[in-house]
Input
Amino acid sequence: MDFIDAIKNRQIKIAVIGLGYVGLPLSMALTKAGYYVQGIDCNAQRVESINNGHSNIIDVKDECLQESLKNDLFNASTEYSLISNVQAIIICVPTPLNKAKEPDLSYIIKAMKGVLPYLTKQILISLESTTYPGTTEELIEGYVEKEKGWKVGEDFYVCYSPERVDPGNKKFSVENTPKVIGGSTQKCLQIGQTLYESFLPKVVGVKTTRVAEMTKVLENTFRCVNIALVNEMTMMCERMGIDIWEVIKGASSKPFGFMPFYPGPGVGGHCIPLDPLYLSWEAKKYNYFNRFIETASDINSNMPYYVVHQIGKILCQQGKSIRKNKILLLGMSYKKDISDLRESPSLEVYELLKKQGASVEYYDPYIESFNYKDKVIKGIVFNEETIKQFDIVVLLSDHSNIDYNWLVEKATLIYDTRNVCKDIENHKIIKLGQNIEGMYLEN
Ligand code: SAJ
Output
């Protein structure tokens, strides 16, 4: 039976490498479609927890995981040798930046070294990790051809299909989000697209793996650049005494040709701050210096400094200072209603304030504590008594489960970097981008 028929008859077994926020939901979608999935992860603790039916991923419920385990459609392991039993491999490992803000592809390289000895002919390998154009050719296709002497598209098949997982998104999951896929050859694309179409509603085939890689980086560079645009306009509007939030509200009434983005304390997460830098790094190899991305990343990275500068100015207007007064940060996660601290601008605001000798504490309903300089920083008990101790409350993540009317009533002063208090009229509230020159605040 050929590969295409085997897919249609669910007679192929699939290995998913990397059981994080991409790999575990993908594994569950595959098992729901009737495939046997061999999960492989280097973290033995995570493997044990998963095999005990406990999901550490917000988008995968324990019940779903337990169902796939019970039906013998899923197993997790640290052993790459299990690759010898599968006919397809989907790689979902991290692609972070290193300290020099350069792409770190070590996880992909490690995964490929792990699977190599156990690859069988006619296997399909699909990479999902976000990366710069050319990675699949170099680290998947080229690596196997060199090490095995096989020919891609004949002895084995290679695709790239970028992950589009937005952890915690209630509306879009891996099962209802269109998927892009590119193949190393036409036959690779045909096989890969047939596999993905067998369990996903919409699969968009593109000409090559490089096109598919560039598609994902464009998606997130688009966001990064547009967020930077409104962040820069915020500083411009502050100088001009114009309310940027009103400006965006007005522009959003345009039903075509405009898409609202909002200013904030900076850009966090595992995608937006990183993906564009993957592209600009690779483009430099072609002597192309990408001004948009570098400038956008610079503007976004500057926002925590801007926020801290504004906090100082606001306190100064009251004869207070960062050094002498007490500051409460509300929301440490990188965006609302999640507990993810990765690249969170709130952490940078915290660190900048500490460096200025501030007495700064935090509260986040999703985060009990975080590590700062080898110390465990715990959130405060959030009540009327504790809030009153602070000279200013800085809203950094606009979590939905906070009663902002109550907070405004109890707090001395609010610096709202997310305009989450937009419907509350109170002189205590100062918004990100508000012109505070010469503003005398009543106590
Ligand atoms: N942010 C702003 N202003 C905005 C939008 C976001 O300051 O207008 C900030 C957020 O607060 C956060 C950062 O940017 O700190 C990133 O926010 P995000 O909404 O882009 O969320 P992410 O990082 O979880 O991005 C993911 C991406 N998904 C994938 O890469 C698969 C992105 O492509 C999605 O568009 C995004 O989720 C989404 O739409 O939620």
User: Anything to note?
Assistant: The pocket of SAJ is lined by residues 163-166, 169, 219-220, 223, 227, 261-262, 264, 267-269, 271-272, 334-335 (CB under 6 Å). The domain at 3-207 is CATH 3.40.50.720 (Rossmann fold).
